[in-house]
Amino acid sequence: MRQDGHGPTEAAAHGPLDVTDAWQLTDAITRLRRILRSSVRSDLPWETLPMAHIELLQRLSEEPELGVSQLAARQRLAVTTVSTLVQQMVSSGTLSRASKDGDRRSVVLRVTALGNELLGAWKAANAERLGRALERLPGSDHASLMAALPALVALAGHLEADEDTDEQAK
Questions:
Q1: 3-state SS assignment for residue 49
Q2: How far apart are CA 146 and CA 158, in angstroms?
Q3: pTM score, two decimals?
Q4: What are the structural domain ranges in the chain?
Q5: Considering only Cβ atoms within 10 Å of each terminal Cβ, which end of the chain, N or C, has fewer?
Q6: Closest C-alpha among 120, 148, 111, 149 to residue 40
Q7: What average pLDDT does range 32-39 have in this prediction?
């Protein structure tokens, strides 16, 4: 529902997205991301792992054995940035580097037991925080959010594909 108290505009429901609705969706996603980052830190006060490390751990747990260049492309970051993060993570014991089978020049990255433990703690803290907030929503809002998850995942995929297409066109 828009801040003006009305539902999505007719155009948003059946055609191009209204600028107000687009901004509201972007704002909601940004606010959710920020509050989840900061609230996990209060739930896990011992945790000092940077969010960039958590994001790389999450990606590598979903897509094991990527190389630095592949990881940079997936995260939409510069290779030098990812290389620096990976070095920090190898030093901290959350990632390991190994030669790719059959090609000693190629390196693959693997999440270590410590990395999996820390990522698991982050995921559990997020689930707990989200669960408490979702419990306070009316049942219909909770159901709407859960029903929207596949659409949000698909939306993210389309935005990534559009960006890839734009990059290839340059």
A1: coil
A2: 20
A3: 0.73
A4: 1-43, 49-125, 138-170
A5: C
A6: 120
A7: 81
Reported as type and span, the H/E element at residue 110 is: strand 103-111
Helix (H) or strand (E) holding 4, with range, is none
Query: In whole angstroms, how far apart are CA 7 and each of 62, 78, 113, 142?
Result: 36, 40, 47, 17
pLDDT at 2 over 60: no
Residue 107 to residues 19, 22, 166, 168, Cα–Cα distance (Å):
44, 40, 29, 26
Q: Which tens digits make up the pLDDT trace of 58-113?
A: 999 999 989 999 999 989 899 999 999 999 999 999 999 988 777 777 889 999 99
3-state secondary structure 70-106: HHHHHHCCCHHHHHHHHHHHHHHCCEEEEEECCEEEE
pLDDT score of 46: 55
Q: Give the whole-angstrom CA distance, residue 26 versus residue 152.
A: 12
Out of 1.10.10.10, 3.30.70.660, 2.30.30.230, 3.10.150.10, which CATH number does the structure's domain 49-125 have?
Answer: 1.10.10.10
